[in-house]
């Protein structure tokens, strides 16, 4: 039996978790002053810092087929890019609801949309987790269309104070709502090596999960600080020194991305929240109502796919996406954050 087979057999069970200022940091935050910088960043296929570019906009609109007078929900408001396009389809007739758990970005998005002419008469925004979709229905009534974009917004990723990115120094937080639950740093203080290894495997398919979990938990046992993004990044970097030099830098970058993703999923209970949303979804939809869900992780896509297939077999959905829809090559080339996106839809019977 080789080492890879032994490692697979020993895979631990991960139980999940059930218990300078940002505005001045980036030129791209002032596109009217630095339009050349923004254009160059986009041309390279990157998203300018502090900006958000909505993904699969036309594909989503084609699925939802929004007409004036309908009632809909953007379950994950974020920057409001998708919401804005859906509001345009309503043509000031009907109503949009939107939810988001983030207390920092939500007021900014509300103000941005209100300044564009979309106030409470056409748009109702609630700060709540999208798994609480059942709390919206008594006010909204059955919904004609629903969108859930499960990606983290660029505004969150690019804000160092949120700790979502290993590329910038900041507190190791990773919570979508920093006022609730525990930060990633607090989570690491009490996690066992086996559970951390399982988390990295289940939430991110991290190939070096065992080595990284061992290094992180050992550092914490020794009393070392693992409370900032750079401290975790340095542990990962030191742990992967065994990788051949020509491949090392790229592998370290990928492992950092995966480890931060795994921690973010964990501290926000993202799989559990999605499961609750999918279970409540049919009762929220009107007959003939359409739903589109945009995922960025294979585990999320699996949950959506299996839920849609099960409810289709039972007759609750009359039609579902036969396969996941991927962003066009053109969109992926112009926006690197679109590359892992998958879009699925369903229509209620």
Automatic annotation (TrEMBL):
<comment type="similarity">
    <text>Belongs to the methyltransferase superfamily. RsmH family.</text>
</comment>
<feature type="binding site">
    <location>
        <position position="100"/>
    </location>
    <ligand>
        <name>S-adenosyl-L-methionine</name>
    </ligand>
</feature>
<feature type="binding site">
    <location>
        <position position="156"/>
    </location>
    <ligand>
        <name>S-adenosyl-L-methionine</name>
    </ligand>
</feature>
<keyword id="KW-0963">Cytoplasm</keyword>
<feature type="binding site">
    <location>
        <begin position="80"/>
        <end position="82"/>
    </location>
    <ligand>
        <name>S-adenosyl-L-methionine</name>
    </ligand>
</feature>
<dbReference type="InterPro" id="IPR002903">
    <property type="entry name" value="RsmH"/>
</dbReference>
<protein>
    <recommendedName>
        <fullName>Ribosomal RNA small subunit methyltransferase H</fullName>
        <ecNumber>2.1.1.199</ecNumber>
    </recommendedName>
</protein>
<keyword id="KW-0949">S-adenosyl-L-methionine</keyword>
<keyword id="KW-0489">Methyltransferase</keyword>
<dbReference type="GO" id="GO:0005737">
    <property type="term" value="C:cytoplasm"/>
</dbReference>
<dbReference type="InterPro" id="IPR023397">
    <property type="entry name" value="SAM-dep_MeTrfase_MraW_recog"/>
</dbReference>
<dbReference type="Pfam" id="PF01795">
    <property type="entry name" value="Methyltransf_5"/>
</dbReference>
<feature type="binding site">
    <location>
        <position position="149"/>
    </location>
    <ligand>
        <name>S-adenosyl-L-methionine</name>
    </ligand>
</feature>
<keyword id="KW-0698">rRNA processing</keyword>
<dbReference type="InterPro" id="IPR029063">
    <property type="entry name" value="SAM-dependent_MTases_sf"/>
</dbReference>
<dbReference type="GO" id="GO:0071424">
    <property type="term" value="F:rRNA (cytosine-N4-)-methyltransferase activity"/>
</dbReference>
<feature type="binding site">
    <location>
        <position position="130"/>
    </location>
    <ligand>
        <name>S-adenosyl-L-methionine</name>
    </ligand>
</feature>
<dbReference type="GO" id="GO:0070475">
    <property type="term" value="P:rRNA base methylation"/>
</dbReference>
<comment type="function">
    <text>Specifically methylates the N4 position of cytidine in position 1402 (C1402) of 16S rRNA.</text>
</comment>
<keyword id="KW-0808">Transferase</keyword>
